[in-house]
Specification:
Distance between the termini: 34 Å
Largest sheet: 8 strands, mixed
Strand order of the largest sheet: 6-13-12-11-10-7-8-9
Helix content: 25-40%
Structural class: alpha/beta
Oligomer: single chain
Shape: globular
């Protein structure tokens, strides 16, 4: 059975019509197409009748009729006997999933909570449309921008200015994602045998990028309760590292948020040891409780290299990130960058530019969606798995759960058999272990999260008794 959406809700989502010179039916069809593509009106949803939507939007019946016909022509809707006009997507599910990254993706019943990355928020499709419209102006050039499109550099710099950290466009290098940024840093600032202090647990792909020049990783423990800065400072003194990689904003995977006082203390320890901090701010824009965020780490240590990412605050498909670096470091990093690639794709840069211009509206809607999903997941865990321990994160995309027994790998294996995929703690461990932990993102719909928790309850009932999970689970590719 198709779900339904009211005419009033469609009118709210569509907003004001008549804002440009296009015929109203074309504008309405385009708005509906974007809403369906972004998932704000899900596929298999019965749209309001033409009469109902005519009244809700205050337009003619002919406008609605022609808009619906346009949707059907472009395969974003179909007519069904007894159901009227029902939304659809022009691509089948198997056409938009990756069998290498998610081999279970062909099974519609499997709930993938291995990847802590949400679907695109409202505004992404419109940003791409605007980018494609601007592209012809650039086609007469060579199209290479090793430091990034100048307009985008300026827009990213403005976000730091807005946070109280004066930044020039020349300090910004646009990269092919945050991992591309980390690889550039490793190429420019490390040599074989150099030590790099990293948080433990930590996002595994970042450490792989930082160690690709045979740097030696030195773990500094982090837990959901926060950072032990004195202990980390002692590790830094003993290891004499070249770099220190940290995620102070809703740390992945623990969800911790480093306070201003901790940042100041940590920066002082790095300054004394002459260590360059590499600060990953991928989750910085995902404060979900309306809290005031601490100052950027670079405000306490000007020599900081900051990594930013469009993936978490906008959409992973953009595949764009950036570096904010001291101006004196720019030539060295650009030279390293040119040995890896010649720049990021131009259409994506233009799309990101449009998203940044409307960032506050996009962020507000995205945060509201993530708050609702976080509540569904954490409430479900508290109700059905009260023996699991976790600290409620104030933002980010996932919760780090401690199990009563060190059976995370067995739990992951049993849960996958029941149709839900999560990541075991060992995936995030620098030197192994963390069998007491699993990471669970709230990046799926509330209905899916509620079902996922029920399946995890069933899996844990088996595993806690020493059964199930035979042979453990194979570690999946983790991209977020």
């Amino acid at each position: 059975m198709s779900r339904t959406i009211t005419a009033a809700r469609v009118a709210t989502l569509v907003g004001t019509l008549g804002s440009d010179d296009r015929p109203l039916y074309v504008e309405l069809a385009e708005q509906l197409r974007l809403l369906i593509g972004e998932g704000r009106i899900p596929a298999a949803t019965r749209l309001p009748s033409e009469r109902e939507l005519t009244a809700a939007l205050g337009v003619s019946r002919t406008t609605i009729t022609r808009a619906y016909a346009e949707l059907r022509e472009r395969d974003y809707a179909e007519s069904r006997r007894g159901s009227g006009t029902v939304t659809r997507l022009p691509l089948r599910a198997e056409s938009v999933t990756d069998r290498v990254f998610a081999p279970w993706s062909q099974d519609p019943d499997v709930i993938d909570l291995n990847c802590a990355a949400p679907s695109a928020p409202a505004g992404v499709a419109a940003a791409y449309d605007a980018a494609v419209g601007e592209l012809p102006a650039y086609l007469s050039s060579h199209g290479y921008y090793p430091a990034g499109l100048p307009r985008l550099q300026a827009a990213v710099a403005a976000t730091y200015d807005e946070r109280g950290l004066p930044t020039t466009p020349e300090q910004i290098i646009i990269t092919a994602g945050a991992l591309g940024a980390a690889a550039i840093v490793a190429q420019a600032l490390t040599a074989p045998g150099d030590r790099v202090v990293v948080e433990d647990p930590v996002y595994p792909n970042a450490t792989q990028a930082l160690s690709h020049r045979s740097a030696r990783l030195v773990p500094a423990p982090v837990d959901p309760g926060g950072w032990d800065i004195p202990a980390t400072a002692a590790i830094i003194r003993q290891a004499a590292p070249r770099l220190a990689y940290l995620v102070p904003d809703f740390q992945n995977p623990t969800g911790g948020l480093m306070s201003d006082a901790q940042r100041e203390e940590y920066a002082a320890a790095l300054r004394r040891a002459r260590v360059v901090p590499v600060v990953d701010e991928a989750h910085q824009a995902l404060a979900l409780d309306g809290q005031e965020m601490p100052a950027p780490f670079a405000a306490y240590l000007p020599g900081t290299v900051t990594i930013g990412s469009a993936s978490k605050q906008f959409w992973g498909g953009l595949r764009l990130g950036w570096l904010r670096v001291p101006e004196t470091m720019v030539p060295q990093l650009l030279h390293a960058r040119m040995s890896l690639d010649l720049g990021a794709p131009l259409v994506e840069q233009l799309a990101l530019l449009h998203l940044l211009e409307h960032r506050h509206a996009v962020w507000a809607a995205n945060r509201e969606r993530l708050r609702t999903q976080r509540a569904a997941l954490l409430d479900g865990l508290s109700d059905l798995l009260p023996e699991w321990d976790f600290v409620r994160p104030g933002g980010g995309l996932a919760v780090w759960c401690r199990l009563p027994q060190p059976r995370a790998s067995a739990l992951v294996s049993e849960a996958e058999r029941r149709g839900v995929v999560v990541a075991a703690g060992r995936v995030f461990a620098v030197e192994g272990g963390l069998e007491h932990h699993v990471r669970i993102p709230w990046t799926r719909s509330t209905d899916e999260l509620e079902v996922a928790v029920e399946r995890l309850r069933g899996a844990w009932d088996v595993v806690a008794q020493g059964r199930g999970g035979d042979g453990g689970a194979a570690d999946r590719l983790t991209v977020a």
